[in-house]
């Protein structure tokens, strides 16, 4: 019996550890936050906005009830705002399901470094959250905007971003990575509020990308097409629509380019950086206004040449805009230079913003049209 006593005591000790969760929080005591926003007030304080899922309850008195509610908190720091907000809510705020974070434009211009500190320190923050800048507006105004296609407005914006060819749930990771990449500048997706004069209603629309400087202050925007061209270079999108005009006013055609790929080659000549960008992809003709039979090789080659010249022109304009207006390397050219010419990069990285702005960039497009979308002559042929 004595020989079994130590085993019995060990078993009792182990069983005592299986008593369950001693600090559990019941679901009925939690309030799940699906989206949050931050605005900068005139007095310098922060306005924190939360969009919460309302638990399903039996409706009393009839009438439709919104499946979400919005609450705010004010303070000098995000933690103070969160406490001020919590004092208005009967359930504990839980942020583990938050999909989107919105920054008003004034907040983004003032700088988001301190806000990112609060996000990364919060154990409930999801790394797979999208952070948006509300172009020309406030986070509060945007989060109060209803969206009829989804019960929760925050879900609608995530779905739109996925449809247009960008991976969702990664902009928080993007900005954390860019902070530690020498010479690179962070970007965030931008959204705007539009007023449809014909339908007489407000709606939301993905605008493009917000460009930040190395101090994480808003420097400007790229529109949707400019943003997609940038994502082509960085390898973060899988398709792009291209509309090109035929010479002599003969009409236009539209192509969707998929299987996108980009290569960057760098060189340093007499202290000046030279960058060559090579773009490839597979095109599908979606629409052609001129009645041209693309089954003929000569006509198809003409369309390919016009499309590639358009891609080179538009991509070059996007790169020059970033070089001249923002002076922030959002194309990862510095990473390519570091990889291909580490000795030159060691000398240039201290003043890369200026070197990037002065760099000579040449774009080479080699997209092939693989499908023309018809089996016979064009139906609009007279």
Task: Explain what this protein looks like in three dimensions.
- Keywords: Germination, Lipoprotein, Membrane, Palmitate, Signal.
- This is Ger(X)C family spore germination protein.
- The chain is an alpha/beta fold.
- It folds into two domains: 27-224, no CATH class; 238-382, Nutrient germinant receptor protein C, domain 3 (GMP Synthetase, Chain A, domain 3, 2-Layer Sandwich).
- Helices cover 32% and strands 32% of the residues.
- It contains twelve helices and 13 strands.
- It has helices at 5-16, 78-86, 105-110, 113-121, 139-143, 153-163, 171-178, 224-234, 297-326, 333-340, 342-348, 352-358, and strands at 30-40, 46-53, 68-75, 92-94, 100-104, 130-134, 187-196, 201-212, 218-223, 239-245, 252-269, 272-288, 360-371.
- The strands form two sheets. Strands 1, 2, 3, 4, 5, 6, 7, 8 and 9 form a nine-stranded mixed beta sheet that branches. The protein has a four-stranded mixed beta sheet with strand order 10-11-12-13, with helices on both faces.
- β8 (201-212) and β9 (218-223) form a beta hairpin.
- α10 (333-340) packs across α11.
- The protein is globular, with a radius of gyration of 27 Å.
- The N and C termini lie far apart (104 Å).
């Amino acid at each position: 019996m004595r020989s079994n006593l130590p085993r019995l005591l060990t078993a009792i000790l182990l069983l005592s550890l299986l008593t369950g969760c001693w600090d559990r929080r019941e679901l009925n005591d939690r309030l799940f936050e699906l989206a949050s926003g931050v605005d900068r007030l005139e007095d310098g304080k922060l306005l924190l906005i939360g969009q919460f899922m309302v638990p399903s309850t039996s409706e009393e008195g009839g009438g439709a009830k919104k499946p979400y509610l919005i609450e705010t908190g004010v303070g000098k720091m995000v933690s103070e705002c969160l406490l001020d907000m919590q004092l208005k809510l009967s359930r504990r705020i839980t942020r583990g399901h938050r999909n989107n974070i919105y920054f008003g434009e004034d907040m983004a211009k003032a700088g988001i470094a301190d806000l990112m500190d609060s996000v990364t320190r919060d154990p409930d923050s999801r790394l797979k959250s999208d952070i948006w800048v509300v172009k020309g507006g406030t986070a509060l105004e945007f989060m109060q905007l209803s969206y009829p296609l989804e019960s929760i407005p925050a879900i609608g914006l995530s779905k739109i971003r996925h449809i247009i060819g960008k991976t969702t749930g990664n902009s928080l990771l993007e900005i954390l990575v860019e902070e530690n990449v020498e010479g690179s500048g962070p970007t965030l997706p931008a959204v705007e509020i539009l007023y449809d004069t014909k339908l007489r209603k407000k709606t939301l629309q993905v605008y493009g990308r917000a460009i930040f400087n190395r101090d994480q202050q808003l420097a400007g925007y790229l529109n949707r097409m400019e943003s997609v061209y940038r994502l082509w270079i960085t390898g973060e999108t899988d398709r792009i629509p291209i509309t090109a005009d035929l010479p002599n006013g003969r009409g236009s055609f539209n192509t969707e380019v998929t299987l996108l790929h980009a290569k960057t080659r760098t060189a340093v000549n007499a202290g000046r950086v030279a960058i060559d960008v090579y773009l490839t992809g597979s095109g599908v003709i979606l629409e052609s206004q001129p009645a041209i039979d693309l089954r003929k090789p000569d006509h198809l080659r003409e369309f390919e040449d016009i499309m590639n010249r358009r891609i080179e022109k538009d991509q070059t304009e996007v790169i020059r805009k970033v070089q001249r207006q923002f002076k922030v390397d959002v194309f990862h050219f510095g990473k390519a230079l570091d990889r291909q010419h580490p000795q030159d990069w060691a000398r240039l990285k201290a003043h890369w913003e200026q070197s990037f702005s002065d760099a000579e960039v040449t774009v080479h497009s080699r997209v092939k049209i693989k499908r023309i979308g018809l089996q016979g002559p064009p139906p609009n042929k007279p």
